[in-house]
Amino acid sequence: MKDFVLPDLGEGLTESEIVEWHVAVGDRVTLNQTLADVETAKAIVQLPSPFEGVIGALYAEPGSTVRVGAPIVGFESADAPAAVARNPVLVGYGAPVETGDRPKRKARSLPAAASPEQPVFVAPRGAALSTPPVRKLAHDLGVDLELVQGTGEGGTVTREDVRAAASGAPVAVVASAAGDRRIPIKGVRKATAAAMVASAFTAPHVTEFLTVDVTRSSELVERLKAAGERASMLAVVAKALCIAVSRNPSLNSRWDETDIVEFAAVSLGIAVATPRGLMVPNIPGAQGFTLGALTEAIAALAAKARAGEITPAELSGGTISITNVGVFGVDAGTPILNPGEAAILAMGAVRRLPWEFEGQVALRDVMTLSLSFDHRLVDGEQAARFLTDIGRVLVDPATVLALV
Predict the structure, then answer these.
(1) Which of 22, 139, 205, 375 is an active site residue?
(2) Of 67, 183, 200, 323, whose CB is crowded by the most CB atoms within 10 A?
(3) How many Cα atoms are found within 13 Å in the side-chain-facing hemisphere of 109?
(4) Which domains, and CATH codes, for the chain?
């Protein structure tokens, strides 16, 4: 038996979760054939086979977390040197890793009722029996399998059981006497929590607020849509942010211990709520995008993130971020900085409110902007000028000609 260990997937990650196996014990696999879907703290990636051979053992069950360097697959035979195996190098995940022979492990065997194409792993005490596709479905829908009583053969949890639990329909659940529910902290949520704690206790956060009349920006979006163009209020705010960065470069910088790095380009992070947790994919070179291009880029990133198809590269290298809390009906907040960035802008809900306009009170579209920034990099005056520049664009988009 020759073991294949979980490779270093880069980005400073030390562990990954097995989402779904694409192979079973006894399968013959070819070089670079997908072995499993693996979830890191940033994305779900496909793990290719490092060599050809017959699967003799699967050492991890779907849903389990595996440390980098731990064996995950045992090969009965492989077309590779006996002493050295090259772990696969996924795009952007660093250099190959050499590993020596590891002690042989007893291969897991499938239960007699299962087929090689649909393995059912022996679950730990208290956990539900299910197949990898069902576990993945539960993962995508945010259903805790340990709380679902399976209706399949031998108590196996089926797809219907998972969908019923996700829809809120009455299902039999396994819970503690007090009715508590325990949700494992892992994947994106675990990484996000660690990053937010590190950010909050490393960078001195300050938040400033500005409420502005965005009626003309709302009208601009509607006119563009009527003309068949792509436009959204989020894209308008993003464009205004990029313009404001060109006038206030300290907001697009990073604290590098011995130096302050002011970036020449804007790699704009867009906060996206997904079933796996909060993600912030980036749009490199956002300052060069037209309003229509920004609208399309934001929509594409959000769709990929929610579908679990975002790549680690798209989640790295951001310089400043924006989050749209307005879509949840929230007016304002104090967003926490994405680690390593100087600022994050939250845009609130657009409200139709009585507002002073041309010397009279009129119903206008009003929005509150919340800007959190790292006070090591940005002082209050710089943040205020930046926020005011964004507000000027939103109040009257035509002022762009005076700002650029």
Answers:
(1) 375
(2) 323
(3) 4
(4) 2-99 (2.40.50.100), 132-184 (4.10.320.10), 188-403 (3.30.559.10)
